[in-house]
Amino acid sequence: MTRPPPSRLEGPLHVAILTTGGTIEKTYDETDGSLRNVRSVLDRLLEELRLPDLRVTHVPVMNKDSLDMTPADREQILDKVRGALAHYDAILVIHGTDTLAETGAHLERNLPGLAVPVVLTGAMRPFEFRDSDALQNVNESLLAARLLAPGVYVVMHGRALAFPGVTKNRERRTFTRSS
Q1: What's the CA gap between 102 and 166, in Å, rounded?
Q2: 14: which residues sit within 8 A by CB, 6+ positions away?
Q3: Domains with residue ranges and CATH for the chain
Q4: Which residue stretches of 23-70 are H helix?
Q5: How far apart are CA 118 and CA 48, in angstroms?
Q6: If residue 109 lies in a helix (H) or strand (E), which one and from where to where?
Q7: Per-residue pLDDT of the chain (179 residues; tens, 9 = 90+)
Q8: pTM score, whole prediction
Q9: Which of 89, 84, 40, 83 has its CA nearest to residue 60?
C-alpha cells in the first residue's frame, strides 16, 4: 500500500461525510417504543469529538435502515461519492451494517483509480444508546481517512479492511475478510 501524501497526514483535512441512516442513526421514539431512522445524529456525534484539524461537510443522502436499501439507493450513494471525490481529501459514508459490505463492494467495483480513501462505517448499536460503538467507529474512521491510501474500506472496531472481500460476521458482530 502506498503512503498518503504529506498534506493528508498533517494539517487540515477536509472530509465529506455522507449519511445514509442505519443503526448508528436510529433514534428512540418514547411515544411508541420504536427505533427508527428519522434524522441524522451526525452533528451531535461530532460534538463529542475533538478534531481541530478537520473540516467536515455533511452530505445527507438518505435516512434508511440498510435492509431497506435498493439497488437504486446504492446508485444514489455511488453518485454522491463520485460528486464529492474531486472536492475533498477523503469521503466517509455512514451506513447501516446489515448491507454495508454490499455497498462497499459496489463502490469498489465502480470507482476505479481513486485518488482519495472512501471509508464506510456504522455501528452495531445506535449512537443514542449508552453502550454504542458509534463514537469509536466514527473517530477511527476519521483517523483512517487521513492515514489510508486511496481505496474503499470498512473501518470499525479497531480495523480497516479494504474491499473487495469484506463481509459482516454476525457471530463476532464486526466485519471480517471473506474466507
Answers
A1: 9
A2: 55, 56, 57, 87, 88, 89
A3: 6-177 (3.40.50.1170)
A4: 42-47
A5: 23
A6: helix 100-110
A7: 566 665 666 778 999 999 998 766 656 556 666 555 556 667 777 787 888 888 899 899 998 888 889 999 999 999 999 999 999 999 999 998 889 999 999 999 999 999 999 999 988 776 665 777 888 899 899 999 999 999 999 999 999 999 999 998 888 888 898 86
A8: 0.86
A9: 40
Residue with cell 433514534: 27
Nearest to 138 by CA among 118, 117, 148, 123: 123
Task: Please give the C-alpha separations between residue 62 and each of 52, 97, 122, 136, in angstroms, as whole numbers.
Answer: 28, 15, 14, 22
Among the listed residues 81, 109, 110, the one whose alpha carbon sits nearest the alpha carbon of residue 18: 81
Please give the grid coordinates belonging to residue 64. 434508511
H helices then E strands: how many in the chain? 5, 10
Residue type present at position 12: P
